[in-house]
Specification:
Blueprint: H1 2-21, E1 26-29, E2 34-42, H2 48-61, E3 71-74, E4 87-93, E5 104-108, E6 113-119, H3 126-138, E7 141-143, E8 147-151, E9 164-173
């Protein structure tokens, strides 16, 4: 039942965000802080699917109701970090709730962010990230925290070339 709710939330939010994906490539925006439940992960991104299964099992068994699309928070740069040392987490926005291991209740407080949208397979977002980091540097900003991705499409029912991802990079003026 919880998986159905999660898929419904993702689909509804994806429709609203898809229209914005075609607008400006990057923009700075303020975001309100929010709570999310996260599953801490360490290692290569090839472990993503097994960690998603663990996340869904933990969320369902703890009767946690997601309040938005699945998200990923990335603490390590895959260009400079060995795959086995990558630090990341996956989770969902939630209202105030009690969580048990292996989940953690976290709060996103990083603002402003540079927002970007990627359409296509997740593994093909590298070119967008290159342009995004160049834009941040060229516009006088510095990255101040981990990158967040919000997965706006259900990969079980969306063709890879149609997957939508919203990306936030926390920044401050240099």
């Amino acid at each position: 039942m919880k998986k159905i709710v999660v898929v419904s939330v993702v689909a509804a939010l994806a429709a609203g965000f898809a229209a914005r994906a075609e607008a400006e490539e990057f923009r700075v925006k303020e975001v309100a802080s929010f709570l999310y439940v996260g599953l801490p992960c360490k290692g290569p991104f090839s472990q993503m699917q097994q960690n998603i299964e663990l996340l869904f099992h933990a969320v369902t068994s703890q009767s946690i109701a997601p309040m938005g699309p699945m998200l990923g928070v990335f603490y390590s740069d895959p260009e400079t970090t060995k795959p086995e040392n990558l630090q990341w987490e996956i989770g969902f926005p939630v209202s105030d709730t009690n969580v048990q291991d292996p989940l953690r209740l976290k709060q996103w407080i990083l603002t402003p962010v540079v927002e970007a949208f990627h359409t296509g397979p997740y593994e093909k977002s590298g070119a967008l990230y290159t342009r995004l980091m160049e834009w941040i540097e060229a516009n006088g900003y510095a990255v101040t925290g981990p990158i967040m991705e919000k997965y706006l499409s259900d990969p079980n029912s969306t063709r890879p070339e149609d997957l939508k991802t919203e990306i936030w990079v926390p920044v401050n003026r240099k």
